[in-house]
Protein: Lipoprotein
Organism: Ferrimonas balearica
Amino acid sequence: MRLTPLALAMMASSVLVGCGGSSDSNDNTNQGPGPVLPPPPELLNFAIVGIATDAPVANAAVEVQIGGQVYSVQADDSGIYQLAFEYEAGSLGDDEMVVITATGEGSQDHIRLISQLGSFKAIQAQAGDNGVLEPSESSRTSITQISTALHLLAQDTGVSLSDDAALAEAEAQIESAELLELAALIKVLADNPEFTPEQGTILELLTPENGQSVEQAIEDYLLANGLMDESGQWSASFAAALAEATTETLNDQAVTRAFSADELVGLHVVTATPAPGWVAGSGTLIQFYQDGRAEVQNPNASGYMMRDNLSADWQVTAQGQVVLSYDDDALGLLQFEELSREEVAERWGESVVPAVFESFEEVKMLPTQRQYLRDSLIRLSDGAVNTIAMVRESKVLIVLDEMGIEWSGTLPYYTESQQTTHSWHLPGDVASVWQTAPTGSWALPLPASIKGLYDEVAWEYSVAQQVTLTEDGDVLDAQGSALGEWRFADGVLSVDTESGWSVTILPYAEVDGLLSAAVLTNQGTIRDSDISWIAQFDQATSTLEQDLVQPRPFVLNAWINTWQASVSEDGLLDPASAIWGYLMQEDGTMYRVYPDQWIDGDSEWVPGDYYFYAENLFNWTWQKEGAHEFSYQGERDYGSVMMDRKRNWTAIRTLSDGRHLVLERSYMRWDYYDTPELNFEGVFILPRINVLAPLDLSRYDEMYQRSESACSLPWFESCSYNPAPMTTESLTLPRD
């Protein structure tokens, strides 16, 4: 029971009267003035204003929980709420996390959405002096399918959401595509009568129990309701509803977060979502300028191949989206596709068919090229890392002049839209991790003249190189020869090479000695952008040599493709994209171990099932070449040609969790016995940073059992291993 100041004053008065009336006239004891009561507690007010919507949740019951206190209000017909409450000063802890929920009524009683606002201290600071938290001050006051998906997936990371830092850490781990997909699924369950749950709320259905993940809870519901089959395929009607809900989510400005122009000028870092313990190994850089122009990393650029950035105009729409409109010369690489008459007619129109096909031709290799028109950027969540959906619109041209065909007017084209999701660092969140000049030995991406395997002559590639940054500003290569000069200012390393390239490196993220850096490489008219790993050499920490030979059931795995959160699930790597191992023996022999899919239907295995295959078709051997230099090599006789291969690793450092950073490169040579003029050789894997660490194959239970059944690993005692391929001749082709 809370007492008003008037009641407290009356109580104080009655106490004083009572004391006076109880005095004894015969008592000579001196009576004091009575007890001094503390002042009544200060009463404070706070309010939260927002909306409950995936489509508006009319008259929703909105509750905010701060520690053990719950305050509630009913939203209006449009889902808009104003939740005001009074509290005694000190009764609500500043560090208490604030969660707000909205529950529908009547036909919407299955809808229960949630949003994590942050700590009470944080939202008080956002609200300012008037104590009213408005949507313009915190987008989290919108209780939506996105905020609900964000909350569920943040909990799913295993990070305790006990403070603002932990909440930010958990949300940074959420895979961007998974966030949008879950938000769309919530909208389908909320709004589509065909898929609305018969009992319980959406939040209850999707909240994992008994150690499940959110994905497992979703799969259980979809399987139980016939919306997904055992192979993971959605029903046609559910897939269509999900696609529609995705589009509606992206187009609903009450659900998405608006951009403001003043937060956009500067360098943007766009990547896939890094897995815990990793930083991004690749991505896209975009520079927004004050004058409304933008410079965008060329989609055709890779970690090695340098391409000139694209130019565009940018603007913020009335809906709070960002639109990049590309200049007319924003063209992709020329591609060749084998297309039929019907496909050409469907894409470019019937009038094009007689121009490209002879009367006797039904299928033909045709040149096509993509012209980038515009990108629409839609913010799904904000924070230290934003989640962004990008819709890219392009023209796909059939390049008739490449075929020597004259065509009057504009080249035939059709338009295409592609939607992707990304983790997005806005300029305010792109800051250098370097506080002082990075002297010493580093693995840095710098241009080098290299003849690749399929190159006729050497080209300039941006590759990882071992360099030393001396105290007096020189850049030296691994042999001590001069490469150029360097300078350092405001956290950015600038290198001017002897060959005329200017390279700036801004490392914006670091995990235990592995850094992700924004790299800008310029020469003349070429302005190339990229995101790359860099690392400082500390070979004294390297324990790679001790990990080369692994005991059964371990292999030494290459983890270069595992930094993306999307390639792992429940702690296990996706076999197809992330497992590539080496089984090195004490005697210097070696197998390469990778997953392959069973193809032959005449067996107990299902075609497409993965198993581990140890390949030794090249009679691989490994060796130590120097104090921190290791290699493996092999050769294979194909009958008419001999192929030689070699891969080198130079140890960079070992991280605290045992992962080994190495500078990796490989070389290949083809020698034709009868036609030596066809011989060719060159660098197959251009120099790069890779990560090596042991991997326990037995964690993949079913794959491991299939491998024993196939006798495809050399250590099983129940069978006699044969390194010949178990499936098709395709396994004999080179793999890396």
